[in-house]
Amino acid sequence: xxxxxxxxxxxxxxxxxxxxxxxxLKHAVVVDADVEEPNLELFLKGHVERTLPVFKSYxxxxxxxxxxxxxxxxxxxxxxxxxxxxGVLIHKELCHDCGGCAVVCKQGxxxxxxxxxxxxxxxxxxxxxxxxTGRLSVGEVSGVKIIETLKEIVAEEPxxxxxxxxxxxxxxxAAVEDVDYAILVTEPTPFGLSDMKMVVEMLQNxxxxxxxxxxxxxxxxxxxxLFCEINNISILGEIPFSKEYAAVYSRGGLLAEERSExxxxxxxxxxxxxxxxxxDAVGGDR
Length: 286
Ligand code: SF4
Ligand code: SF4
Prior knowledge:
32% of the residues lie in helices and 28% in strands. The radius of gyration is 22 Å and the shape is elongated. Strand 6 (110-125) and strand 7 form a beta hairpin. By secondary structure, the protein is an alpha/beta fold. The protein has 2 domains: 2-54 and 118-274, Rossmann fold (3-Layer(aba) Sandwich), CATH 3.40.50.300; 63-108, Alpha-Beta Plaits (2-Layer Sandwich). The site of one iron/sulfur cluster (SF4) has 15 residues, from helix 3.
């Protein structure tokens, strides 16, 4: 069973919910797929078991064979190859590793080499739960390869919790693809609703069942609630806005560990997941 946690934008409380659900769902393997800004490890702490580089291919052109015909540049929709008068300019970071340019090059002038685009770290956290963190290197534009690698590693795990990138980018699609259920975190404001709508559309297009968690309930208005009611979207729970919760977060604390009522919010929420989660898999006492 794979559950993804996502949001329309940053700052909605997605990471807070992810880390606290990780605490409550004690049999879950946790994946931090928010590769541009992974920070679950700051809260779940633990110790590093291993760190591996993640590689991606890029094209290399043999100038002795290249006739500057331009076919590779015409083929590459990502503009990673720009044939110029004196040679083909290669923008490695734009390459999506599709392999097509070598196929269209009639001169056999293109081969591929690997380069590191980030890392993947395995940690043991809490009661020896595994946390896998993907981290995209500064300057890289796509974390899809890192997310795919993370998902390959946990493919055989029976219960996986994935903290996805926010928004509806290719990275978010890669993170939520094939999950059994998605939890969409939003805040009850017009901005929250606007960003949430795009994610709702994405999840519906991908036929992924999902429910909504309203974070910072009490601020804003009831537009998110109304939208969910009209569109028959399940609201899994509401977490009230609290300055005290913000203070726990800002010093790196876990709300589920420190606040019993927060545990109660999560227990109620988990009951609303349309999933077969065993009662003994949910625990707040460590
Ligand atoms: S397709 Fe091959 S021959 Fe043509 S410009 Fe690209 S590398 Fe050169
Ligand atoms: S492998 Fe694909 S994405 Fe990369 S440069 Fe070639 S055509 Fe473009």
